[in-house]
Amino acid sequence: MTTNIDTLWLFALSTKCTTINFFFIFALACFINLFFQWSKHKSTIPGPRGFPFIGSMHLMSGLAHHKIATAAQSCRANRLMAFSLGETRVIVTCNPDVAKDILNSSAFADRPIKESAYSLMFNRGIGFAPYGVYWRTLRRIAATHLFSPKQIKVSEDQRMVICYQMVEMFHHKQQQRGTNSVCVRELLKRASLSNMMWSVFGRRYRLDSNDVESVEMRKLVDEGYELLGMLNWTDHLPWLADFDLQGIRSRCSKLVPKVNRFVKQIIDEHRGQLVPLNGDFTDVLLSLEGSDILSESDMIAVLWEMIFRGTDTVAVLMEWILARLVLHLDVQSKLQDELRRVVGRSRVVTESDVTNLVYLQAVVKEVLRLHPPGPLLSWARLAITDTTIDGHDVAAGTTAMVNMWAICRDPQIWKEPLQFRPERFMIEAEGLMNMSVMGSDLRLAPFGSGRRSCPGKSLGMTTVTFWVASLLQEFEFWRSECDGYNVDLSEVLKLSCEMANPLTLTLRPSPSRPITAASSRR
Protein backbone atom coordinates (compact mmCIF):
# COMPACT_ATOMS: atom_id res chain seq x y z
CA MET A 1 0.00 0.00 0.00
CA THR A 2 1.44 3.36 -0.97
CA THR A 3 0.93 6.77 0.71
CA ASN A 4 0.66 10.04 -1.20
CA ILE A 5 2.60 12.47 0.97
CA ASP A 6 1.33 15.57 -0.87
CA THR A 7 -2.28 14.47 -0.40
CA LEU A 8 -1.81 13.96 3.36
CA TRP A 9 -0.13 17.35 3.70
CA LEU A 10 -2.95 19.11 1.89
CA PHE A 11 -5.54 17.28 4.00
CA ALA A 12 -3.81 18.30 7.24
CA LEU A 13 -3.53 21.93 6.12
CA SER A 14 -7.18 22.11 5.10
CA THR A 15 -8.23 20.61 8.44
CA LYS A 16 -6.18 23.22 10.32
CA CYS A 17 -7.64 26.06 8.25
CA THR A 18 -11.13 24.73 8.81
CA THR A 19 -10.54 24.78 12.58
CA ILE A 20 -9.21 28.36 12.47
CA ASN A 21 -12.09 29.46 10.28
CA PHE A 22 -14.58 27.82 12.66
CA PHE A 23 -13.28 29.74 15.68
CA PHE A 24 -13.14 32.98 13.68
CA ILE A 25 -16.71 32.53 12.45
CA PHE A 26 -17.88 31.60 15.96
CA ALA A 27 -16.25 34.70 17.47
CA LEU A 28 -17.68 36.89 14.72
CA ALA A 29 -21.15 35.44 15.27
CA CYS A 30 -20.91 36.12 19.00
CA PHE A 31 -19.86 39.71 18.34
CA ILE A 32 -22.69 40.27 15.84
CA ASN A 33 -25.19 38.77 18.28
CA LEU A 34 -23.89 41.02 21.06
CA PHE A 35 -24.05 44.02 18.74
CA PHE A 36 -27.67 43.40 17.82
CA GLN A 37 -28.62 42.80 21.46
CA TRP A 38 -26.93 46.09 22.36
CA SER A 39 -28.58 47.98 19.49
CA LYS A 40 -32.04 46.65 20.37
CA HIS A 41 -31.71 47.38 24.09
CA LYS A 42 -34.04 50.15 25.18
CA SER A 43 -34.17 51.66 28.64
CA THR A 44 -37.18 53.48 29.97
CA ILE A 45 -34.71 56.26 30.83
CA PRO A 46 -33.51 58.21 27.76
CA GLY A 47 -29.81 58.50 27.07
CA PRO A 48 -27.00 58.01 24.56
CA ARG A 49 -26.64 54.52 23.11
CA GLY A 50 -22.88 54.24 23.55
CA PHE A 51 -20.58 51.68 21.97
CA PRO A 52 -20.24 47.91 22.49
CA PHE A 53 -18.08 46.95 25.49
CA ILE A 54 -17.03 50.51 26.45
CA GLY A 55 -20.44 52.22 26.46
CA SER A 56 -20.17 56.01 26.76
CA MET A 57 -16.74 56.22 28.37
CA HIS A 58 -15.96 59.25 26.20
CA LEU A 59 -18.44 61.31 28.25
CA MET A 60 -16.23 61.07 31.32
CA SER A 61 -13.04 62.34 29.67
CA GLY A 62 -12.00 65.98 29.76
CA LEU A 63 -14.75 68.33 30.90
CA ALA A 64 -17.25 65.59 31.73
CA HIS A 65 -19.85 67.98 33.16
CA HIS A 66 -19.99 69.84 29.82
CA LYS A 67 -20.26 66.63 27.78
CA ILE A 68 -22.95 65.13 30.01
CA ALA A 69 -25.00 68.34 29.87
CA THR A 70 -24.73 68.39 26.07
CA ALA A 71 -25.70 64.71 25.83
CA ALA A 72 -28.71 65.29 28.10
CA GLN A 73 -29.91 68.12 25.87
CA SER A 74 -29.42 66.02 22.72
CA CYS A 75 -31.39 63.13 24.23
CA ARG A 76 -33.98 65.45 25.79
CA ALA A 77 -33.08 63.88 29.10
CA ASN A 78 -32.53 66.82 31.45
CA ARG A 79 -34.60 65.24 34.22
CA LEU A 80 -32.87 61.87 34.12
CA MET A 81 -30.44 60.29 31.67
CA ALA A 82 -29.05 56.74 31.57
CA PHE A 83 -25.85 55.51 29.97
CA SER A 84 -23.15 52.94 30.58
CA LEU A 85 -19.47 53.23 31.38
CA GLY A 86 -18.24 49.83 30.31
CA GLU A 87 -19.97 47.45 32.73
CA THR A 88 -21.15 50.28 35.02
CA ARG A 89 -24.78 51.38 34.80
CA VAL A 90 -25.08 55.13 35.31
CA ILE A 91 -27.91 57.61 35.74
CA VAL A 92 -27.38 61.37 35.87
CA THR A 93 -29.70 64.30 36.42
CA CYS A 94 -29.55 67.98 35.52
CA ASN A 95 -32.77 68.73 37.42
CA PRO A 96 -32.89 69.95 41.06
CA ASP A 97 -36.05 68.02 41.95
CA VAL A 98 -34.66 64.70 40.70
CA ALA A 99 -31.32 65.54 42.32
CA LYS A 100 -33.07 65.90 45.67
CA ASP A 101 -34.73 62.49 45.22
CA ILE A 102 -31.34 60.88 44.55
CA LEU A 103 -29.22 62.63 47.17
CA ASN A 104 -31.75 62.28 49.97
CA SER A 105 -32.74 58.70 49.18
CA SER A 106 -31.70 55.94 51.58
CA ALA A 107 -31.27 53.74 48.49
CA PHE A 108 -28.23 55.83 47.46
CA ALA A 109 -26.43 55.68 50.79
CA ASP A 110 -23.10 54.40 49.43
CA ARG A 111 -20.48 55.61 47.03
CA PRO A 112 -19.02 53.48 44.22
CA ILE A 113 -15.57 52.36 45.31
CA LYS A 114 -12.97 53.45 42.79
CA GLU A 115 -9.83 51.32 42.65
CA SER A 116 -7.70 54.37 43.42
CA ALA A 117 -9.89 55.30 46.41
CA TYR A 118 -9.62 51.76 47.78
CA SER A 119 -5.87 51.64 47.18
CA LEU A 120 -5.40 55.02 48.89
CA MET A 121 -7.33 53.82 51.99
CA PHE A 122 -10.30 56.13 51.44
CA ASN A 123 -12.64 53.17 51.81
CA ARG A 124 -11.96 53.51 55.56
CA GLY A 125 -12.60 57.27 55.62
CA ILE A 126 -15.84 59.23 55.65
CA GLY A 127 -15.85 59.74 51.89
CA PHE A 128 -16.02 56.13 50.69
CA ALA A 129 -16.72 53.97 53.76
CA PRO A 130 -19.91 51.90 53.24
CA TYR A 131 -23.00 53.21 54.98
CA GLY A 132 -23.34 51.54 58.38
CA VAL A 133 -22.20 51.72 61.99
CA TYR A 134 -18.55 52.47 61.16
CA TRP A 135 -19.45 55.29 58.75
CA ARG A 136 -21.97 56.81 61.18
CA THR A 137 -19.36 56.72 63.95
CA LEU A 138 -16.81 58.57 61.80
CA ARG A 139 -19.37 61.14 60.75
CA ARG A 140 -20.42 61.80 64.34
CA ILE A 141 -16.83 62.13 65.57
CA ALA A 142 -15.93 64.57 62.79
CA ALA A 143 -19.13 66.59 63.22
CA THR A 144 -18.56 66.91 66.97
CA HIS A 145 -14.82 67.50 67.19
CA LEU A 146 -13.86 69.22 63.93
CA PHE A 147 -16.83 70.69 62.05
CA SER A 148 -19.26 71.79 64.77
CA PRO A 149 -20.01 75.53 65.19
CA LYS A 150 -18.24 75.43 68.56
CA GLN A 151 -15.05 73.95 67.09
CA ILE A 152 -15.12 76.32 64.14
CA LYS A 153 -15.27 79.21 66.60
CA VAL A 154 -12.42 77.74 68.67
CA SER A 155 -10.18 77.54 65.58
CA GLU A 156 -10.83 81.15 64.52
CA ASP A 157 -7.45 82.38 65.75
CA GLN A 158 -5.52 79.89 63.64
CA ARG A 159 -7.30 81.01 60.46
CA MET A 160 -6.49 84.61 61.37
CA VAL A 161 -2.79 83.81 61.89
CA ILE A 162 -2.57 81.94 58.58
CA CYS A 163 -4.40 84.75 56.77
CA TYR A 164 -1.98 87.36 58.11
CA GLN A 165 0.93 85.20 56.94
CA MET A 166 -0.71 85.00 53.52
CA VAL A 167 -0.90 88.80 53.34
CA GLU A 168 2.77 89.04 54.32
CA MET A 169 3.72 86.54 51.62
CA PHE A 170 1.83 88.46 48.95
CA HIS A 171 3.84 91.56 49.90
CA HIS A 172 7.06 89.52 49.95
CA LYS A 173 6.42 88.01 46.51
CA GLN A 174 5.89 91.48 45.09
CA GLN A 175 9.26 92.58 46.45
CA GLN A 176 10.98 89.42 45.18
CA ARG A 177 9.64 89.74 41.64
CA GLY A 178 10.13 93.49 41.46
CA THR A 179 6.61 93.78 40.07
CA ASN A 180 3.10 93.99 41.42
CA SER A 181 2.04 90.82 39.55
CA VAL A 182 1.65 87.66 41.64
CA CYS A 183 0.58 84.09 40.79
CA VAL A 184 -1.79 83.18 43.61
CA ARG A 185 -2.44 79.42 43.29
CA GLU A 186 0.60 78.07 45.09
CA LEU A 187 0.15 80.44 48.02
CA LEU A 188 -3.57 79.65 48.35
CA LYS A 189 -2.78 75.92 48.41
CA ARG A 190 -0.11 76.44 51.04
CA ALA A 191 -2.49 78.41 53.24
CA SER A 192 -5.26 75.83 52.89
CA LEU A 193 -2.93 72.91 53.65
CA SER A 194 -1.40 74.75 56.61
CA ASN A 195 -4.88 75.35 58.02
CA MET A 196 -5.76 71.65 57.86
CA MET A 197 -2.38 70.52 59.23
CA TRP A 198 -2.95 72.76 62.24
CA SER A 199 -6.48 71.45 62.86
CA VAL A 200 -5.77 67.78 62.21
CA PHE A 201 -2.17 67.27 63.36
CA GLY A 202 -1.49 70.34 65.49
CA ARG A 203 1.38 71.26 63.16
CA ARG A 204 1.99 74.99 62.86
CA TYR A 205 4.03 75.83 59.78
CA ARG A 206 4.78 79.31 58.57
CA LEU A 207 3.65 79.69 54.99
CA ASP A 208 7.06 80.91 53.92
CA SER A 209 8.83 77.90 55.45
CA ASN A 210 10.13 75.00 53.40
CA ASP A 211 10.74 72.54 56.21
CA VAL A 212 11.01 68.91 55.22
CA GLU A 213 7.73 67.82 56.79
CA SER A 214 5.48 70.41 55.15
CA VAL A 215 7.13 69.94 51.75
CA GLU A 216 6.69 66.16 51.99
CA MET A 217 3.03 66.49 52.92
CA ARG A 218 2.37 68.79 49.97
CA LYS A 219 3.89 66.20 47.63
CA LEU A 220 1.79 63.38 49.11
CA VAL A 221 -1.42 65.42 48.80
CA ASP A 222 -0.63 66.48 45.22
CA GLU A 223 0.05 62.90 44.14
CA GLY A 224 -3.10 61.55 45.80
CA TYR A 225 -5.15 64.39 44.36
CA GLU A 226 -4.00 63.56 40.84
CA LEU A 227 -4.59 59.81 41.22
CA LEU A 228 -8.09 60.13 42.67
CA GLY A 229 -9.07 62.62 39.98
CA MET A 230 -8.14 60.34 37.07
CA LEU A 231 -10.71 58.37 35.10
CA ASN A 232 -9.55 54.82 35.80
CA TRP A 233 -10.59 52.50 32.97
CA THR A 234 -10.45 49.40 35.16
CA ASP A 235 -13.22 50.79 37.40
CA HIS A 236 -15.59 50.17 34.49
CA LEU A 237 -13.70 47.67 32.31
CA PRO A 238 -12.66 44.97 34.79
CA TRP A 239 -11.18 42.79 32.05
CA LEU A 240 -8.35 45.38 31.89
CA ALA A 241 -7.57 45.04 35.60
CA ASP A 242 -4.55 42.78 35.15
CA PHE A 243 -2.78 45.24 32.88
CA ASP A 244 -2.75 48.53 34.89
CA LEU A 245 -2.42 50.38 31.58
CA GLN A 246 -2.57 53.83 33.22
CA GLY A 247 -0.13 52.94 35.99
CA ILE A 248 -2.62 54.02 38.67
CA ARG A 249 -2.27 50.86 40.76
CA SER A 250 1.51 51.08 40.65
CA ARG A 251 1.54 54.72 41.70
CA CYS A 252 -0.93 54.07 44.53
CA SER A 253 1.21 51.20 45.82
CA LYS A 254 4.20 53.55 46.01
CA LEU A 255 2.26 56.40 47.62
CA VAL A 256 0.47 54.51 50.42
CA PRO A 257 3.62 53.38 52.34
CA LYS A 258 4.82 56.99 52.35
CA VAL A 259 1.47 58.17 53.72
CA ASN A 260 1.49 55.42 56.36
CA ARG A 261 4.98 56.36 57.54
CA PHE A 262 4.22 60.08 57.62
CA VAL A 263 0.92 59.86 59.51
CA LYS A 264 2.07 57.06 61.84
CA GLN A 265 5.06 59.15 62.92
CA ILE A 266 2.75 62.01 63.92
CA ILE A 267 0.39 59.62 65.74
CA ASP A 268 3.35 58.13 67.67
CA GLU A 269 4.49 61.63 68.67
CA HIS A 270 1.01 62.38 70.01
CA ARG A 271 0.96 59.09 71.92
CA GLY A 272 4.26 60.03 73.54
CA GLN A 273 2.84 63.22 75.05
CA LEU A 274 1.88 62.85 78.70
CA VAL A 275 -0.73 65.58 78.27
CA PRO A 276 -2.23 66.54 74.89
CA LEU A 277 -0.63 69.85 73.90
CA ASN A 278 -2.82 71.06 71.07
CA GLY A 279 -6.21 69.39 71.35
CA ASP A 280 -6.10 68.67 67.60
CA PHE A 281 -8.07 66.01 65.76
CA THR A 282 -5.31 63.43 66.22
CA ASP A 283 -5.63 63.88 69.99
CA VAL A 284 -9.39 63.43 69.63
CA LEU A 285 -9.02 60.10 67.83
CA LEU A 286 -6.47 58.85 70.37
CA SER A 287 -8.83 59.72 73.24
CA LEU A 288 -11.79 57.73 71.90
CA GLU A 289 -13.17 55.05 74.19
CA GLY A 290 -15.35 51.97 73.97
CA SER A 291 -16.87 51.11 70.60
CA ASP A 292 -15.57 54.37 69.09
CA ILE A 293 -11.92 53.31 69.31
CA LEU A 294 -10.28 53.10 65.87
CA SER A 295 -7.51 50.74 64.85
CA GLU A 296 -4.25 52.42 63.88
CA SER A 297 -4.80 51.68 60.19
CA ASP A 298 -8.27 53.23 60.32
CA MET A 299 -6.93 56.22 62.21
CA ILE A 300 -4.29 56.77 59.53
CA ALA A 301 -6.94 56.55 56.80
CA VAL A 302 -9.25 59.04 58.53
CA LEU A 303 -6.50 61.59 59.26
CA TRP A 304 -5.10 61.29 55.73
CA GLU A 305 -8.54 61.87 54.24
CA MET A 306 -9.15 64.96 56.40
CA ILE A 307 -5.91 66.56 55.21
CA PHE A 308 -6.49 65.51 51.62
CA ARG A 309 -10.10 66.60 51.22
CA GLY A 310 -9.82 69.72 53.36
CA THR A 311 -7.06 71.24 51.27
CA ASP A 312 -8.19 71.55 47.66
CA THR A 313 -11.72 73.02 47.86
CA VAL A 314 -10.76 76.21 49.73
CA ALA A 315 -7.82 76.99 47.44
CA VAL A 316 -9.76 76.22 44.23
CA LEU A 317 -12.77 78.32 45.25
CA MET A 318 -10.65 81.29 46.34
CA GLU A 319 -8.80 81.34 43.02
CA TRP A 320 -12.13 81.44 41.14
CA ILE A 321 -13.35 84.28 43.40
CA LEU A 322 -10.22 86.37 42.84
CA ALA A 323 -10.43 85.77 39.08
CA ARG A 324 -13.99 87.05 39.01
CA LEU A 325 -13.07 90.12 41.07
CA VAL A 326 -10.32 90.98 38.59
CA LEU A 327 -12.74 90.65 35.68
CA HIS A 328 -15.55 92.55 37.43
CA LEU A 329 -13.98 95.59 39.03
CA ASP A 330 -17.42 97.08 39.72
CA VAL A 331 -18.18 94.11 41.97
CA GLN A 332 -14.83 94.49 43.70
CA SER A 333 -15.53 98.18 44.28
CA LYS A 334 -18.86 97.36 45.93
CA LEU A 335 -17.11 94.89 48.21
CA GLN A 336 -14.59 97.56 49.22
CA ASP A 337 -17.45 99.95 49.98
CA GLU A 338 -19.14 97.30 52.11
CA LEU A 339 -15.93 96.66 54.06
CA ARG A 340 -15.48 100.35 54.82
CA ARG A 341 -19.12 100.66 55.86
CA VAL A 342 -19.25 97.55 58.08
CA VAL A 343 -15.69 97.37 59.44
CA GLY A 344 -14.27 100.84 58.94
CA ARG A 345 -10.58 101.63 58.76
CA SER A 346 -9.78 101.59 62.46
CA ARG A 347 -9.38 97.82 62.75
CA VAL A 348 -8.92 94.63 60.74
CA VAL A 349 -11.86 92.51 59.66
CA THR A 350 -12.75 89.49 61.83
CA GLU A 351 -14.89 86.42 61.26
CA SER A 352 -17.67 87.93 63.33
CA ASP A 353 -17.96 90.68 60.69
CA VAL A 354 -18.70 88.22 57.90
CA THR A 355 -22.37 87.88 58.90
CA ASN A 356 -22.84 91.57 58.10
CA LEU A 357 -20.89 91.43 54.83
CA VAL A 358 -24.01 90.56 52.84
CA TYR A 359 -22.66 91.46 49.42
CA LEU A 360 -19.53 89.37 50.00
CA GLN A 361 -21.72 86.37 50.77
CA ALA A 362 -23.65 87.01 47.55
CA VAL A 363 -20.40 87.12 45.58
CA VAL A 364 -19.26 83.80 47.03
CA LYS A 365 -22.62 82.23 46.16
CA GLU A 366 -22.44 83.54 42.60
CA VAL A 367 -18.94 82.10 42.16
CA LEU A 368 -20.13 78.77 43.53
CA ARG A 369 -23.01 78.87 41.06
CA LEU A 370 -20.83 79.49 37.99
CA HIS A 371 -17.77 77.56 39.15
CA PRO A 372 -18.78 74.76 41.56
CA PRO A 373 -15.54 73.06 42.68
CA GLY A 374 -17.26 69.68 42.23
CA PRO A 375 -19.46 70.14 39.14
CA LEU A 376 -20.59 66.51 39.35
CA LEU A 377 -20.49 66.74 43.18
CA SER A 378 -17.02 65.13 43.05
CA TRP A 379 -18.05 61.65 44.14
CA ALA A 380 -21.09 59.78 42.82
CA ARG A 381 -23.64 57.72 44.74
CA LEU A 382 -24.29 53.97 44.52
CA ALA A 383 -27.71 52.33 44.70
CA ILE A 384 -27.60 49.67 47.43
CA THR A 385 -31.13 48.45 46.68
CA ASP A 386 -33.54 48.50 43.75
CA THR A 387 -35.39 51.80 43.77
CA THR A 388 -37.52 54.16 41.70
CA ILE A 389 -36.34 57.61 40.59
CA ASP A 390 -38.62 60.01 38.75
CA GLY A 391 -40.96 57.15 37.89
CA HIS A 392 -38.21 54.92 36.47
CA ASP A 393 -36.96 51.64 37.95
CA VAL A 394 -33.29 51.81 38.94
CA ALA A 395 -31.46 48.60 39.79
CA ALA A 396 -29.15 48.06 42.76
CA GLY A 397 -25.54 48.64 41.77
CA THR A 398 -26.37 51.64 39.58
CA THR A 399 -24.13 54.69 39.91
CA ALA A 400 -25.99 58.02 40.20
CA MET A 401 -24.53 61.46 39.50
CA VAL A 402 -25.86 65.01 39.80
CA ASN A 403 -24.64 67.59 37.29
CA MET A 404 -24.69 70.63 39.57
CA TRP A 405 -22.85 72.68 36.95
CA ALA A 406 -25.74 72.18 34.49
CA ILE A 407 -28.38 72.90 37.15
CA CYS A 408 -26.65 76.15 38.07
CA ARG A 409 -26.68 77.31 34.42
CA ASP A 410 -30.21 76.24 33.54
CA PRO A 411 -32.17 79.18 32.03
CA GLN A 412 -35.38 77.58 33.32
CA ILE A 413 -34.09 78.08 36.86
CA TRP A 414 -31.87 81.16 36.68
CA LYS A 415 -32.40 84.54 35.07
CA GLU A 416 -29.44 85.37 32.81
CA PRO A 417 -27.63 82.21 33.96
CA LEU A 418 -24.32 82.93 32.22
CA GLN A 419 -24.00 86.44 33.65
CA PHE A 420 -21.90 87.04 36.76
CA ARG A 421 -24.44 88.96 38.83
CA PRO A 422 -24.16 88.63 42.65
CA GLU A 423 -27.07 91.04 43.02
CA ARG A 424 -29.45 88.21 42.10
CA PHE A 425 -29.07 86.99 45.70
CA MET A 426 -30.00 90.41 47.11
CA ILE A 427 -33.08 91.28 45.07
CA GLU A 428 -36.26 90.23 46.80
CA ALA A 429 -38.18 89.95 43.52
CA GLU A 430 -35.89 87.14 42.34
CA GLY A 431 -36.67 85.07 45.44
CA LEU A 432 -33.05 84.13 46.16
CA MET A 433 -32.21 86.32 49.17
CA ASN A 434 -32.41 83.48 51.68
CA MET A 435 -30.99 80.77 49.44
CA SER A 436 -28.57 78.49 51.28
CA VAL A 437 -25.68 76.69 49.63
CA MET A 438 -25.58 74.04 52.37
CA GLY A 439 -27.79 71.49 50.61
CA SER A 440 -31.37 72.41 51.45
CA ASP A 441 -31.99 73.98 48.03
CA LEU A 442 -30.87 71.77 45.15
CA ARG A 443 -30.82 74.69 42.72
CA LEU A 444 -27.49 75.57 44.33
CA ALA A 445 -25.96 72.77 46.38
CA PRO A 446 -22.22 72.73 45.52
CA PHE A 447 -21.40 70.64 48.60
CA GLY A 448 -24.08 68.03 47.95
CA SER A 449 -27.10 67.17 50.05
CA GLY A 450 -28.30 64.41 52.33
CA ARG A 451 -26.26 62.06 54.47
CA ARG A 452 -23.31 62.01 52.08
CA SER A 453 -22.93 65.77 51.74
CA CYS A 454 -19.54 67.32 52.47
CA PRO A 455 -19.08 67.28 56.27
CA GLY A 456 -16.70 70.24 56.21
CA LYS A 457 -18.85 72.65 54.21
CA SER A 458 -19.44 75.10 57.09
CA LEU A 459 -15.74 75.23 57.93
CA GLY A 460 -14.86 75.69 54.27
CA MET A 461 -17.33 78.55 53.76
CA THR A 462 -16.18 80.26 56.97
CA THR A 463 -12.55 80.04 55.87
CA VAL A 464 -13.16 81.28 52.33
CA THR A 465 -15.35 84.27 53.23
CA PHE A 466 -13.02 85.45 56.00
CA TRP A 467 -9.84 85.08 53.94
CA VAL A 468 -11.36 86.86 50.94
CA ALA A 469 -12.57 89.70 53.18
CA SER A 470 -9.10 90.01 54.73
CA LEU A 471 -7.35 90.09 51.35
CA LEU A 472 -9.81 92.70 50.06
CA GLN A 473 -9.14 94.86 53.09
CA GLU A 474 -5.44 94.79 52.27
CA PHE A 475 -5.34 94.78 48.44
CA GLU A 476 -7.09 95.73 45.27
CA PHE A 477 -6.85 93.05 42.56
CA TRP A 478 -6.22 94.05 38.96
CA ARG A 479 -5.25 92.34 35.73
CA SER A 480 -1.62 91.25 35.63
CA GLU A 481 0.88 93.73 34.26
CA CYS A 482 2.64 90.92 32.38
CA ASP A 483 2.54 91.51 28.63
CA GLY A 484 -0.19 89.60 26.84
CA TYR A 485 -1.74 88.10 29.98
CA ASN A 486 -5.51 87.87 30.26
CA VAL A 487 -7.59 86.17 32.93
CA ASP A 488 -8.62 82.86 31.39
CA LEU A 489 -11.75 81.20 32.81
CA SER A 490 -11.09 77.92 30.99
CA GLU A 491 -11.58 74.88 33.22
CA VAL A 492 -9.75 71.64 33.84
CA LEU A 493 -11.58 68.86 35.68
CA LYS A 494 -9.45 66.87 38.08
CA LEU A 495 -10.82 65.89 41.47
CA SER A 496 -12.13 69.47 41.58
CA CYS A 497 -12.80 71.84 38.69
CA GLU A 498 -9.88 74.27 38.62
CA MET A 499 -8.82 77.15 36.44
CA ALA A 500 -6.91 75.58 33.56
CA ASN A 501 -4.28 78.34 33.77
CA PRO A 502 -3.16 79.58 37.19
CA LEU A 503 -4.35 83.09 38.01
CA THR A 504 -1.81 85.90 37.94
CA LEU A 505 -2.95 89.31 39.15
CA THR A 506 -1.66 92.73 40.11
CA LEU A 507 -1.87 93.86 43.74
CA ARG A 508 -2.43 97.46 44.77
CA PRO A 509 -3.09 98.93 48.22
CA SER A 510 -6.77 98.73 49.13
CA PRO A 511 -8.77 101.88 49.95
CA SER A 512 -10.29 99.80 52.78
CA ARG A 513 -6.93 99.09 54.36
CA PRO A 514 -6.91 99.92 58.08
CA ILE A 515 -4.69 102.86 58.96
CA THR A 516 -2.96 100.66 61.54
CA ALA A 517 -2.86 97.58 59.28
CA ALA A 518 0.89 97.12 59.37
CA SER A 519 0.96 96.71 63.13
CA SER A 520 -2.41 95.04 63.64
CA ARG A 521 -1.68 92.17 61.27
CA ARG A 522 1.40 91.02 63.10
From TrEMBL:
Residue stretches in coiled coil: none
SUPFAM superfamilies linked to this entry: Cytochrome P450
Binding site for heme: C454
Cofactor(s) required, per the database record: heme
Gene3D superfamilies registered for this protein in UniProt: Cytochrome P450
Transmembrane regions: 20-39
Keywords: Heme, Iron, Membrane, Metal-binding, Monooxygenase, Oxidoreductase, Transmembrane, Transmembrane helix
PROSITE patterns to which the protein is assigned, alphabetical: CYTOCHROME_P450
Molecular-function annotations in GO: heme binding; iron ion binding; monooxygenase activity; oxidoreductase activity, acting on paired donors, with incorporation or reduction of molecular oxygen
Xref: Pfam families: p450
Family: Belongs to the cytochrome P450 family.
Protein name according to UniProt: Cytochrome P450
